[in-house]
Design brief:
Blueprint (H helix, E strand, L loop, with lengths): L2 H29 L1 E5 L13 E6 L31 E5 L6 E8 L4 E5 L2 E4 L2 E2 L1 E11 L22 E10 L6 E5 L12 E2 L4 E5 L21 E2 L3 E11 L18 E2 L2
Antiparallel strand pairs: 1-2, 2-14, 3-4, 3-14, 4-12, 5-6, 5-11, 6-7, 8-9, 9-10, 12-13, 14-15
Amino acid sequence: MSSKSVKSEGFFETVKTVFYALLIAGLFRTLFFQPFWIPSGSMKDTLLVGDFLFVNKMVYGYSKFSCPFSLCPISERILAGSPSRGDVVVFRHPVSGQDYIKRLIGLPGDKVQVKNGIIFLNGNEQTQVSIANFEEDYEPQGSVGGFPACTNNSLIIGSICTKEKNLEILENSPKHSVLNIRNGLSGDNTPVFVVPKGHYFFMGDNRDNSVDSRFSQSSGGVGFVPFSHLLGRADRILFSSSGRSMLYFWTWRKDRFLKPIY
């Protein structure tokens, strides 16, 4: 065999190896875990802009969005478990198809209402207790470079931006923190939402800075989200950076590496 033939065979072996590696990586991403960067502040302070996590796509089973080439249609979905109240979930917007991440508040059949910023589930007032102020620097955040909304109306770059921080405890759900920028905004008082069968109701933890199920799809909101649109549950932050790029090591938030999500 000539040296030219050996080189040609080696090249094609390398190409084949790379192809199979990419195929396996693609299948792994499609079937099991999906990477997700937090692009906005709608889930502060549970999730910050620049947090990086993997979404567990197996926890709720497969859907038409997670199965390659429609191999497992919704009628034959393999169920691994049911979504639970309090789960932090990545889902596809029912209209735009964009990926969103929010906290699951209402299950099928639930009646959900917000009064003066407090959630009522099936007529029962849920617990919310003030614990502290959430503070962050007023500066551009993430790759988009948006500024945070502040209770103290800070407009000076580098100053401290504050929000009211409360501990919320929903029935049959782990406790978690939520933020309040100001009272009396449109999402603080809502009608009663009755969650349809096979659908779910989501809200962001940064309550005054979240477009979620409190707002109708016709007005640009999320509305009710069907089960088929749930991509998976976010369980742990793997990496976090406050800068415009993950390569800016001086902006890494080491205290958030491998942090569990509640």
